[in-house]
Specification:
Elements lengths: L2 H19 L15 H4 L18 E12 L3 E7 L4 E7 H4 L1 H7 L7 E10 L5 E12 L15 H6 L1 H7 L1 H23 L3 E2 L5 E2 L11 E4 L4 E5 L4 H10 L3 E9 L11 E10 L3 H20 L3 E4 L2 E4 L5 E4 H7 L11 H10 L10 H12 L8 E4 L21 E6 L2 E8 L4 H15 L11 H9 L4 E7 H9 L18
Parallel strand pairs: 3-5, 6-10, 14-15
Antiparallel strand pairs: 1-2, 1-4, 2-3, 4-5, 7-9, 8-9, 10-11, 11-18, 12-13, 15-16, 16-17, 17-18
Length: about 500
């Protein structure tokens, strides 16, 4: 802390002590039933400048002081609540000498209550003329200076509470996030899906390949893992007879941080019996384009100055078609396994010794194609080698009935027709574990209970996961996942 900041904090505490010595409650809890500022503003729109609301009663508003101009016998300050902000006019002759004297010790950042009547100033600004003022919470730290604001990105993420106070566009982003999730629930519920909750702590981490967080349950005397995906539990519900289920909740992956990754993130996963991945492509296209229209008012959005057109129908390519048409790979080369492996090596892709051409094609796709998929694009026919939970394609068993959706070069959704053959699933789990080798970090372990569930019989089905955080980034034009997570994970303060 520098000397200037230390001096300001000392001044604030001295002011607070002076108010307390004068009998002011610095943290009161008796200002009841304030009216939202946004509800009050329309009532004064028709007022003429320098006029009071006729037959108007007293209004009670509460909020944080955001700016203040003090004069000898009067003062103006702007206060902000969750809904909006309004100007307050404080006059010594109306409040009384003692109350006005104490008021002049208030600071920007204090949370206060105001009682008064509506009027408009000479300049036409709607204001509340205060007949009573009350300190609710004394702020002991100053808000960021008005013109420079809270601009340091890491400080904004670390002190999100201040970021929300001073940056209205940040509050708007998180309101939109809440609205997006509410609309997703509405969309799926209206189509017969039931929202469920599955375990966050799991004895076997499954449903994806990632390093989990581990913990220990003393009473059960066993290691548990924060889930990396809810998939295997949701599919157990299909076995149990629920035919349309979804969950919106957190996943946890003990991996790196970036503009696209946070150790805990929000996922939508949904599963539908007697459906295929083609059905889910149609559903996803309908849902996301509808969301865009509801949230932004348009099918065309801008993401970091790049226009994105979400109007259906969306492009659909197999992975091999995308490698040829977008990635510029020779179609004949893709038919030869040796040539595919050689091309991957030529492009600097490092593959594990166990990896085959399916893994090489997937890595080539990520390198040559992914970042070029700006408008919504479905990529289908993922290699079986990289899709251990997806159903093999009946015409070509080297690929699966799977799609991923890309928008602005980012994966937004992953879906497939589900594998429901317990013998095939067991073999693929074993193959997946063998390919991981001695990678203890990813905890290669076979989920025997899930195989048992499949042995009872799971109906044909399709399932999908959509990254909520990335979807919110798209619809709020936010460049980093940290901009759409209220409290993202950061390194400790030095």
């Amino acid at each position: 802390m520098d000397k200037q900041q230390s001096h300001i904090l000392k001044q604030r505490r001295e002011k607070a002590q002076a108010l307390a010595d004068a009998g002011v409650k610095l943290f009161s809890n008796d200002f009841k039933a304030p009216q939202p500022i946004a509800e009050i503003l329309p009532r004064g729109e028709a007022l003429a400048p320098e006029s009071h609301e006729k037959d108007g009663g007293l209004y009670r508003v509460a909020g944080r002081i955001m700016s203040m101009r003090k004069f000898g016998k009067a003062a103006f300050f702007h206060m902000q609540d969750e809904s909006d902000r309004i100007q307050i006019y404080a006059r010594r002759d109306l409040l009384g000498d003692e109350e006005f004297k104490l008021f002049k010790k208030w600071d920007v950042g204090d949370i206060v209550g105001v009682t008064g009547k509506l009027f408009k100033t000479k300049t036409g600004e709607l204001s509340v003329e205060a007949s009573k003022l009350q300190m609710i919470t004394k702020s002991l730290r100053p808000l960021p200076e008005k013109f420079h604001g809270l601009t340091d990105v890491e400080t904004r993420y670390r002190q999100r509470y201040v970021d929300l106070i001073v940056n209205p566009e940040v509050r708007d982003t998180f309101r939109k996030r809440v609205e997006i999730i509410r609309l997703i629930r509405e969309f799926l519920s209206n189509r017969g899906f039931m929202e469920v909750e599955t375990p966050m702590m799991q004895p076997v981490p499954g449903g994806a390949t990632a390093k989990p967080f581990s913990t220990y349950h003393n009473a059960l005397d066993m290691e548990l893992f924060l889930r990396i995906a809810p998939e295997l539990y949701l599919k157990r519900l299909l076995v149990g007879g629920f035919e349309k289920v979804f969950e919106i909740n957190r996943n946890f992956r003990n991996e790196g941080l970036s503009t696209r990754h946070n150790p805990e993130f929000t996922m939508l996963e949904f599963y539908q019996a007697y459906a295929t991945y083609h059905d889910l492509m149609d559903l996803t296209e309908e849902m996301i384009s509808w969301l865009a229209a509801e949230v932004t008012g348009s099918m065309e959005v801008s993401f970091q100055s790049t226009p994105v057109n979400l109007t259906p129908p969306w492009r659909r390519y197999t992975m091999e078609e995308a490698l040829v048409e977008i990635g510029g790979v020779d179609a004949e080369l893709l038919k030869d396994e040796t040539s595919v492996m050689a091309l991957a090596k030529e492009k600097g892709i490092e593959l594990q010794p166990e990896a085959g051409p399916g893994k090489a094609k997937t890595e080539l796709f990520e390198l040559l194609v992914e970042d070029k998929l700006i408008d919504p694009t479905f990529i289908t026919s993922y290699p079986t080698e990289v899709s251990p939970l997806a159903r093999k394609n009946e015409e070509d068993p080297t690929v699966t009935d799977r799609f991923e959706l890309f928008i602005t070069g980012r994966e937004i959704a992953n879906a497939f027709s589900e594998l429901n053959d317990p013998i095939d699933q067991f073999e693929r789990f074993e193959q997946q574990i063998n390919e991981r080798g001695d990678d203890d970090e990813i905890h290669p372990e076979l989920d025997h209970d899930y195989i048992r569930a499949l042995e009872y019989g799971m109906p044909s089905a399709a399932g999908e996961g959509i990254g909520i955080d990335r979807l919110v980034m798209l619809l709020t034009d936010s460049p980093s996942i940290r901009d759409v997570i209220l409290f993202p994970h950061l390194k400790p303060e030095s």
